[in-house]
Fold this protein.
Amino acid sequence: MRPRFAIFGIVLVIASSISPALAAQDGTMTWGIHVTLVSRWLDPGDTEALITPFMVLYALHDALVKPMPGNINTPSLAESWSMSKDGISYEFVLRKGARFHNGDPVTAEDVKFSFERYKGSGATILKEKVKDVQVVAPNRVRFVLKEPWPDFMAFYGTSATGAGWIVPKRYVERVGDDGFKKAPVGAGPFKFVSFNPGIELVVEAFPDYWRKAPSVKRIVMRSIPDESTRAAAVKTGEVDLAYLFGGAIAEDLKRTPGIKVAAPLLYGMYWLDFLDQFDPKSPWHDRRVRLAASLAIDRQAINQAEMLGLGRATGSFVPPEFDPKRAKQLLVEAGYANGFDAGDITPLPPYSTLGETVAGYLQAIGIRSRMRTMERAAFFAAWREKKLRGFLIGATGAAGNAAARLEPFVTKGGIYAYGSLPEIDDLFQRQARVLDRKQRETQLHQIQRIVLDQVLVAPIFQQGFIWGVGPRVEVSGAGLIQGYPYAAPCEDLKLK
């Protein structure tokens, strides 16, 4: 098998509400977004265990501490933070002069309120560990833990969760959660102008942003799910930059005069998740079947086809070898000499060609499946609500440490975990209480070893996230924040 390459057909160029000439005059930068924009990304309180919502959060909102160039834990709305000697409390000193877009100052009450209303990824473990959030002064807030928890800043101060991103208490209480999603007020470098659900988000520069006034005056995030249409929009100047290209389309952009191709290497890991493996009646319950599926995948070929070789094949959890002969033998040993019907394979939208490629590799050894494509918001809702069956291709691009990245997917109560192993749950709870760094590292390695030995997932690649960047862009933001896929920091972006 060889991965499928995208084939060019007739390309329809989208009409733009802002012409390139006008955009150049008024300082507008337009992004071509590869996914459907959803309203919940406007509210940090609903942040998923993935990196996509941060594309919006980095523009509209701000966090006490967040990943920035050169530092995964950069003081932002907090000018400093400290941990008590016993590891029980963390105190943040808020930045003087930091304000929300409506003019209200950012206060300790807003920090407490934002944490208490947070219900996104990591909310369960954070609220299990945090005993109290104390307003020490208008500019000081203290998080008191039930016991020392060295992972606190990995969960709170990185993109592992959205819990540290702050919303204005008085405004949210006045308009309600639904009203906030319709007209969000943040403390980030850009303020809300308009949102057409699923189609377009428009934000404009907030000149009083504490770090600096943005150079770009307006950002238009336009949803263009079709890859060929997105590429055409970069070529014609309808958009200034666009995300996610692969195969022949990426090659074509690379050869196009005036267009630059950027490919930041992400924290983003993609894997095949065997959703039914905890059902004793499912073929996936047999480790040999899961290992066979992993060995059937040619990761190097996928890397070349999907990302021009700019990503990395990974075997973080399972052997990365491509060995279809051994894969077929494992199926025979497991009692599936003629293969079996595995049901649906549901790839993370919009990675349908990746899903087709993986399905093709599995078909070659007798594992038959049906491609199921979904709209992105529906996919995440179904994944989170445990409604998907068969197997899926998942991903996470969130930062944080190993514990923060494992928790949503392989631990009891994890937001996307369809089951867990008692030995993993025990180790995860134990490492969370250990202060010695080397001992914690050993325990986290043990968890990853169990995931490897039991083939709970089949990792596929670490993503090289390919952009197309047009000639008007001076600073695109690609790769400024290590491991981050999108244009950021938004206040650093520049047009020529």
